[in-house]
Amino acid sequence: MKLYEYEARDLFDEAKIPLNKWIVAKNYDEAMNNYKLLKFPIVVKAQVLVGGRGKAGGVKIANNEEELKMHVKNILGMNIKGEKVNSVILAEAAQIKKELYISIIVDRNSRSPLILASKEGGVDIEEVAKKDPHKIMKIKIDPFIGVRDYMVRRVESFLSISNINSILKGLYFTFKNYECELVEINPLALTDNDELVAIDAKIVIDDSALFRLNKFKNRISSELSYYENIARKYGFSYVEQEGDIGIIGNGAGLTMTTMDLVQYYGGRPANFLDIGGGADAEIVYNALSILLEQDRIKGIFINILGGITRCDEVAAGIIKAIKNKGVNKNIVVRMIGTNEEMGKKMLKEYNIDVFDEMEVAAKEIVNLVYKN
Amino acid sequence: MKLYEYEARDLFDEAKIPLNKWIVAKNYDEAMNNYKLLKFPIVVKAQVLVGGRGKAGGVKIANNEEELKMHVKNILGMNIKGEKVNSVILAEAAQIKKELYISIIVDRNSRSPLILASKEGGVDIEEVAKKDPHKIMKIKIDPFIGVRDYMVRRVESFLSISNINSILKGLYFTFKNYECELVEINPLALTDNDELVAIDAKIVIDDSALFRLNKFKNRISSELSYYENIARKYGFSYVEQEGDIGIIGNGAGLTMTTMDLVQYYGGRPANFLDIGGGADAEIVYNALSILLEQDRIKGIFINILGGITRCDEVAAGIIKAIKNKGVNKNIVVRMIGTNEEMGKKMLKEYNIDVFDEMEVAAKEIVNLVYKN
Amino acid sequence: MGIIVNSNTRVLIQGITGKQGSFHTKFMLEYGTQILAGVTPGKKGEKVHGVPVFNTVHEAVEAFPEINSSLMFVPAPYVADAVYEAIDSGIKLIVIISERVPIHDSIQFINYAKQKNCLVIGPNCPGIITPPSTKLGIMPNHLFKAGNIGLVSRSGTLTYEIAYKLLKNSLGISTAVGIGGDPIIGTDFIEIYDYFLKDKSTSAVVLVGEIGGDMEERFSDFYNSLKNKKPVVAFVAGRSAPEGKRMGHAGAIISMGMGSAKSKVEKFKEVGIPVADRPDEIPILLKSLLNK
Amino acid sequence: MGIIVNSNTRVLIQGITGKQGSFHTKFMLEYGTQILAGVTPGKKGEKVHGVPVFNTVHEAVEAFPEINSSLMFVPAPYVADAVYEAIDSGIKLIVIISERVPIHDSIQFINYAKQKNCLVIGPNCPGIITPPSTKLGIMPNHLFKAGNIGLVSRSGTLTYEIAYKLLKNSLGISTAVGIGGDPIIGTDFIEIYDYFLKDKSTSAVVLVGEIGGDMEERFSDFYNSLKNKKPVVAFVAGRSAPEGKRMGHAGAIISMGMGSAKSKVEKFKEVGIPVADRPDEIPILLKSLLNK
To answer: What is the pTM of this model?
Structure first.
């Protein structure tokens, strides 16, 4: 779960990581009432979870009250890549001598946290890694000993600075304490008087750890669309796409492959929907209902390989949805495995053809949706 | 450094380890003013660092105010194995169904913390280990993962109880947080209503960690005798014994061996005094002065193998002591190694014989002290 | 034969009395797996499909010293403790079925396991199966027949799909390993392939990747560096997946331009590993490699 | 020849610019030790008796990849960090001279070192010396001449005393190891004796114990269980020590009836290891064993 910048800044404050002075405002009045705590020039930053807000006009500098009013008005309520701006950060613009980069990430390869430090900050770190790999230093953190002083000295030596100890220890504190996948300062500014200040704050928390993170466990993720939130409630996994063929599968890899096959045969998948292992009729009903409701979806491909999942349960869920919601779309079902015969027989009665091979079924749904 | 029971109880309170209700009192009035917080019967316990206070009459049960007054009066100021009782604990006597034992120790063999649990508490755990080893369970704690729930379940299963989780986690918290060599509850009482309560509290803190333990770093250890405290101030290591031949050596092993040799030849070592590595004349002077001051000491054996320690510095320290304090005791010096010739020459001028072999020198000091 | 598990494998089930644990214990027993004991704290003395249940791993191992492997159906919050218990009891293979294990827990217990020379497979995996009779996992029994194809996959149901395709094309499996769909897992493609290289019963390997991370790219580099190889056919799920969205699996996410199917497919092809565009191409590619 | 260190040992000194570090660097160089670099944070570019100083171990090892050992004169509060730095830079032998290292630090870094296959000697030890020319330690150079006696000791000066007795009796040393006087140390009697068993240049071993703990007792059991042994002569310091008092060394304390010299001497004798009552008996006992 990605945090908003202002949430990440709160955690940085807790970890005593120095930030340029800032306030957050949920509306115009709040911004205008509180901005006087800050000195001009002031940066106004849209609070959204999608990347690239700067290029989208979500970050502006105000040199006086006039400009500030204008920027706050413009940015609040703005739509950035489909996400509405509901709050802004106002922050003092730092006098920056040099922009650096520092983060701690979960490294899949070493199965450990990793410190990433870059001599070039304020830009896409992946770009730096590709273009100038020598500008990036990586230090593996053994999870049992944490960030040690010697690592601090190595980073300082690499970045030619001398005061990153508390920042690095603070980052690791946040990383551990809030079970993060990523804590990032980009840019980390070296100011004209040689102080280090975080100008931005990015934190991604491990979803699987939310149950024990009291501070965040009830936070609703506004990254999710309307249907994605419904899916989370019903206990299956749903990701929206822009296409017109709805997808239901059991298992993440099989569901992705189902989408891939639809695309392979020229179709446009409308979503990823994984009902998980051992889903009962009710889950299948809820899953199918979400897709049936959406007008943009012209056809639905249900792909089940029954292991723990029983084909008769899946069939029962499909039948319930057809009865309750009515059928206004093409539906193709591929179903093999546990109780396959019973499931097939049940669906026959509703005139739904069931396929054995997913490739054949994928071709069929594409034909049905686009060729008619 | 061993803590007093009341200090250990404070740490247990911090760690939320349940204790029988208690107060500490430094004098009679304090005890009488505060005892009403407790219900009779009340146990009065002498606060000393030496073991065996119970047998020495330092622990008594009072069933009413009368008895309480008597016990507090008797115990405060009492002398237990040379240690004066300066404070007492008053504690409610628990209704005990069964006495158990639990501790966490530093285990030299596995280089790890170790949980020790015994079905028999309130007695000497070493005795139980010898007599009934099957009554004791040992679980190694990996320092990087700490006390895990499964260890709690194993201890509970072994002791036939079901609620030691918070006690064991609390003990480990104390053990880690205060860098202990030992945290021990003996006995751990199972009360009539099946609750677990610590009836005693023993903690030994690692001396080497004191510099970073703010709570204890300035605590003066009253375990130490007058001269032991002086020695600590001067930066050498001194342990008092009951004999009459004073010992000075450089290095712990060599100094112990020096004592052993004196004993081997029939003498009684009066102390252990290790001046450490690279001692200068001033340290030698201070060390020798401590021994020269003590009337019980009849002779002194100085045994130096010079490596970093220079024999001329040692000689200078000896000469300064002789000049300032006067010689009223036999002194035998064994000295080889760095600047040996110079040191020997210096001492010759003061008619002090210097030996090459420690065995010969040891025999000589024993002869001088006892045969004259 | 096969890798990691075989007829010498003696299994403990941690979390045996739960719904999933009990359900799959039955199917594993039916497949022929030698399950000696189960553990659920507080359930000592019970039996699950004839398998005795203990309170602690220590007790189970004391009663059955032959136990050399543990399979976990423990709820995610308790997985870490269960793993430490198994490792500290001397178990050298741990297969973790549980999903949604916190990443920081996985980091710690996987590093701990490595120190103690214990092999961890998973978390969030379907397990490992060596046909004809050893299954530590949740795969449908009937799809896995003995043969000479090694199968290693980041995905569960997709593994069964491929086993089904192999079966229909008269190809059998030496061992199939689901390594798990989390970002942090105990054993990766390189390590499993290394086992297959040493296994005489394996002639070729199917490697099933998916979006997220760079395990496929790292495998390709490793494969390329080898002198003696066994043929590999690869498949990558998620060609149609958008950036920045987790596709069901915690580890299946394209982030910051990293982990796309395109990158993985290109890298495989670059080092000479044929990539199937559809699952039904896998048996065809395999047969052509095996007939070379 | 000798054990652990020899003419192939290339040394880094951590804490080289301190008083002790600089002083002993000189004597080690005089003895013939190959010291390539030193580390003291903030002192990069300085030289100590000609040895270049770096800010971090990483830099030193980058400049001198031949470095395979580190000797530490770091102040006690900073020892743990220095050890982690050395281990994470790939160094496989660490000798820690520093005294008063917190026990909880030692527990952690010694366990960490073991995971990474790094050998730690100490803390609170005089070091290790293989005559005629390799010393990682603080022993007086002139007492240590090459020969066939292995020497392992919990004590510093007492080790020199015994080296002096051997020298006077025309006995030389293969390697002498001071394992350290702390309760928690990296390497114990058993491990060092194991090295001596495999060392062709060692014919007999002098083992110098002292009160505290049960390392001597555990060694005796180990020795007793061996089929092929080399002769051992033991000495135990602290026969006259009282219970409950630390005798200088942090680890030298008889507590709760454990760790007395009497127990150790009896145990040695029980398994057939002759024990010298006085240091000057050691050469006599050695000669009689070697002439058997």
So the answer is: 0.93
